[in-house]
Design goal:
Rossmann fold; about 190 residues; N-terminal domain of TfIIb; 3-stranded antiparallel beta sheet; alpha+beta
């Protein structure tokens, strides 16, 4: 073991430094207790029973990856307001990963792209799905004509199911290339 590594592993805290850190930790603990008092109230029985009156529960699937865990979304006036795990779901069996637990925030994000857009003159402009697909098809066709099918690579995703990955691979073969990979390798 090198001298530097050994020093790093045997670093000692002096009595004076320890007392300073203990005093600072105690001060933070005391201020936290003062600042945290009486800032919340207990929910009423009605609020616990029905926090969003008029909402409905919708069973859905998490789209963070291809596992497809179950989510029960609570929707009020067309807005996803709360979510719970689907305890009866055959895949997730009432569990979520950190991405699934945060799915509501991703769906409600202000920066989420909800429709196709194109940048024209330095500004983003909304376009229709048909226009977007036509533009993509034309660019792929032009690329294939001018540079050949191996000038493109098709990247799969962890969000794809086995069936989607099968069709994605078939599409790449139809395009004329074996250049296919998974986004996780990037």
């Amino acid at each position: 073991m090198s001298e530097i590594t050994q020093k790093a592993l045997t670093t000692k805290v002096g009595r004076r430094s320890f007392l300073k850190m203990a005093a600072i930790a105690g001060a933070f603990g005391a201020t936290g207790a003062i600042a945290g008092g009486n800032v919340t109230r207990a929910a009423t029985d009605e609020e616990v029973k029905n926090p969003y009156p008029g909402s409905k529960l919708v069973k859905t699937i998490c789209t963070a990856c291809s596992v497809g865990c179950g989510i029960i979304a609570e929707v009020q006036n067309g807005v996803w307001v709360r979510q719970e795990v689907a305890t009866d779901h055959p895949i997730s069996l009432g569990g979520h990963c950190c991405k699934g637990a945060d799915m509501i925030d991703m769906v409600r994000s202000k920066v989420r792209v909800k429709y196709p857009m194109v940048k024209e003159g330095g500004a983003w402009k909304r376009i229709s799905w048909d226009t977007a697909l036509d533009k993509i098809a034309k660019k792929l066709g032009d690329l294939r004509k001018t540079s050949g099918p191996d000038s493109a690579i098709f990247l799969g995703s962890a969000k794809m199911s086995t069936e989607q990955a099968y069709y994605f691979r078939k599409f790449a073969a139809m395009f004329g290339t074996n250049n296919i990979d998974h986004q996780a390798r990037i």
